[in-house]
DNA sequence: CTGTTAGCGCGTTCAT
DNA sequence: ATGAACGCGCTAACAG
């Protein structure tokens, strides 16, 4: 790659000082018109652009936001990034994306790289392994230095920073209520292990809805999926039982879509024999047969809000107390739970 | 945010020079053991880390790769990013992702930001608008300066740089052949406008396969979708005709899934009345009913290869001539085209 | 009008 | 064993 042109080179070319060139290119009125135009023409010709690194170092500001997410091949997370990108660009920031791959070690690595001056702030959704082992020291050392940080979706309560979450309890509640409204009596819940906060919160919503209607919780209807094992086999156990449930609430789209397929294989009619509802994050729900009713999560909005909180924090236009924004969900009713007369 | 600790501060704290501190923290044997240990302890306590910007400026190397893609909420592109991330991290690079949103203007903007010293090289998939208007000056000025650049998927033939593409012609060919093998006589093609290179290449494969079998091309069976208009209505016209085709080849997953739904609504049996095949990029194909046969694209591998080409170029370990890697596709046969006896 | 100086944070000769 | 000086590229306060 050819070396880029610098102020220094231009200056030596014209036999003037570096600062003269700098001023000329900024259109300063301190510089004579003639000199300014000649310098400008030369700079244009050689396509001069100020070196960003130098500017960032000088200004002590990168205008870059770091984002650390567990996975990128995931509709929900990519939607959030899209929202972050959009808001950030609008405010003159760029985005640097790193993937933790659900690994604690990789997350810490990403922390180290990004907080060494490369970014003005960080937006993070916590890796599963980190959640599981409750190792939060890297977060704590960040907040101790008041480094601008926003947690989203998978958050940590004990860390003091701005946060954005989905109303997961409300989503689970709405979903379970809807199932009861369409006549379900025995609603199975397919959820994650409890240390995954979002799964646990959605379960809370489910429990709350049932209790509200005076239904006693049947623990045998709650299934905890281990994502490292075979999904199909685990979900089969929900349906291939002597007395299958008449409704399923799954905490994500993949679980729901698998349940749907297994139910059909077993010859159950949906929603008549069994109604199914999921939390959506992708496009699958639209294209199953029948299409799946789901709780919509609004990841894009979440990303925008996270970016807004962070940039306000960076630019010191935020209130001193940390905010916690809650993104509400809504039900998208499709034919897996309800057939329009 | 609290100011970060610097060599300068440590130096003044100990009453020594900056370079002494620098050497001490690098474990240089020029520094007496005693001083070194005291400085090290102090630095550890205050969690000293060298400022990346300063290092980058000094070393004239950022170890960051810029990526510009048309969309991020797109399974194929996020898979590619994943591959780029993986390979890049392994080689000590980080990734900065920008989205052009299919807009020429945004693409140029991203170019300007990223090529100002922030990254060592760029991996790009061209925005639709740029392809449509054939405005490639920003690419040309980059290659003129020998800036490390890799194009992937949506490439530009006339730009001299390393490239990675899917074997789109081969994919279209395999797909059409498969349809003929399972007995299709009248294969409709649902494709994009021709300026979208990948659509046009897949069409070429389709044409080649048909000609190979001595079938005359029926232009009325080729449908060009305008993505800015209603998808469902456009695809309806393929199927809701007096004499519908007995097979459909769609150049992406969404087109295929829509075709499947419309065919079922019309009461056609799949694959008996009509076989359907798509190019996959997401998870939809697995969960439709019946599941969709598709051409698999291996985006992750594509990302890895793109990153490898770029890093070799950056580190001057690449051959002088530009490479063009072709990622081959394979058919994933499911029940939308073939029912296993 | 133009130039000098200093500083952002770091590493690296080259002196002492 | 330690430090001074320089350069990476840029801007801004200050001097002339």
TrEMBL record, chains A, B:
Record keywords: DNA-binding, Transcription, Transcription regulation
CDD domains: HTH_LacI (cd01392), PBP1_LacI_sugar_binding-like (cd06267)
Organism placement in taxonomy: Bacteria, Pseudomonadati, Bacteroidota, Flavobacteriia, Flavobacteriales
Protein name: Transcriptional regulator, LacI family
InterPro entries: HTH_LacI (IPR000843), LacI/GalR-like_sensor (IPR046335), Lambda_DNA-bd_dom_sf (IPR010982), Peripla_BP_I (IPR028082)
Start and end residues of each HTH lacI-type domain: 5-59
Domain of life: Bacteria
GO MF annotation list: DNA-binding transcription factor activity; transcription cis-regulatory region binding
